[in-house]
Design a protein that fits this description.
9 helices, 200 residues, mainly alpha
């Protein structure tokens, strides 16, 4: 093997992938259970069954771990599906948008609650919270663009985007489903009604 040649071990690569997955799963659970501030790298490593250096090597420091957990919760895994509005039926389009938002918030709302709890005391988490809010506002605009292929948004475009941004907030999911005990279906129907109002 010549100088500078890197040896690639499939077994080692698979072990690294498993370690990363274990770290992120453990971190997700701990952040949701006890918050960002109370969670330590040592706890994450212990629950994941790896060493503390492995956490840093696999993902990074605690803020980087949280960011990755957040990104995965927002995007979903391989099983998540992209929004498709290949329909000209308004009811079907609204239902698909509502279902898409509901699926994202079911995954992401617990992580968002942890993020909100840390934003007031940790500058990096405050930046991440603001970033998440900005991203959701952009997604609200994209969803409106999808809906505009089926129906006319009669209210001012910017105002409608702002209203959808608030409507699809993960805080609403957490309050209605986790706190008030709404079913996922009831939340999805509430979303659909709010989306329809935007198009009225």
């Amino acid at each position: 093997m010549g100088e500078g040649t890197r040896y690639h071990s499939p077994a080692r690569a698979e072990q690294a992938r498993q370690n990363r997955r274990a770290v992120l799963d453990a971190a997700h659970d701990l952040f949701v259970e006890q918050g960002f501030g109370a969670t330590t790298i040592e706890q994450i490593a212990d629950r994941a069954g790896v060493s503390k250096p492995t956490v840093f090597n696999a993902v990074g420091n605690k803020v980087e771990v949280f960011r990755t957990v957040r990104d995965i919760a927002m995007a979903g895994g391989e099983e998540s599906r992209r929004l498709s509005l290949s329909t000209k039926d308004l009811d079907a389009a609204i239902a698909r948008v509502a279902d898409y938002i509901a699926q994202v918030n079911r995954r992401y709302a617990p992580v968002h609650v942890a993020l909100g709890g840390a934003a007031g005391t940790h500058p990096a988490m405050a930046e991440l919270y603001d970033e998440a809010e900005h991203q959701r506002h952009g997604v609200a605009g994209q969803l409106l663009e999808h809906l505009e292929t089926v129906a006319t948004v009669r209210k001012p475009r910017q105002r409608s985007q702002d209203r959808l941004w608030v409507l699809m907030s993960p805080d609403s999911y957490a309050r209605l489903v986790d706190t008030r005990g709404w079913s996922h279906r009831a939340y999805r129907e509430w979303l659909a009604a709010g989306i329809r109002e935007l198009l009225a």
